[in-house]
Amino acid sequence: DKCKNLGEQYTALHYASWKGNIHILKLLIESGADKYSKNTYGLNCLHIAAQCDQAMALFYFYSLKMNIYTRDKDKLTPLHWACASNTETAQLYLLAWYDQARLNMQDKDGSTALHHTVKQADMLGNGRPMRALLKAGINRNIRDEKGKTAAYYA
């Protein structure tokens, strides 16, 4: 399970996001839990839900008008996390909501969601997430800080 190694400073909201428990998420938020709280890595509940393929949790947060472009300490967005974790359903939900102008956001290493997806597709042999990003209009020519496009990692 991708999400078993949750470290320190995770809140109850982080754990509920990890499990995708909508009932508990609603209860926590209605009881005053800070839906924007971040752990030591800068991850909030959106990052966790994306990483753990909890699409219904993502939908719930989206319905609360949470910022789906939020970044962690390494400047990764929930979409970056979904792509790096090969969580296809979460990726498709996020792509449905993404503004195309923000699709090419880069992390601290200059990688886009496509860079992360290609690395996972190569290891797992699943090209569907990569095709979804290309169909959504991601720029395949963006270079990371090493000067490499996503195609280099394929």
Name some characteristics of this structure:
single chain; about 150 residues; mainly alpha; about 0% strand; elongated
Q: In which range does the helix fraction lie?
A: 40-55%
Whole-angstrom Rg: 15 Å
Averaged pLDDT, please? 90
Unreliable spans are: none
Count of runs of 4 or more consecutive helical residues = 9
Q: Helix/strand-derived class? A: mainly alpha
Please report the distance between the alpha carbons of the first and last residues.
25 Å
Question: What overall geometry do the principal axes of the alpha carbons give?
Answer: elongated
Biggest β-sheet description: none
* Helix/strand order, N-terminal first: HHHHHHHHH
Proportion in β-strands? under 5%
Task: List how many beta strands DSSP finds.
Answer: 0
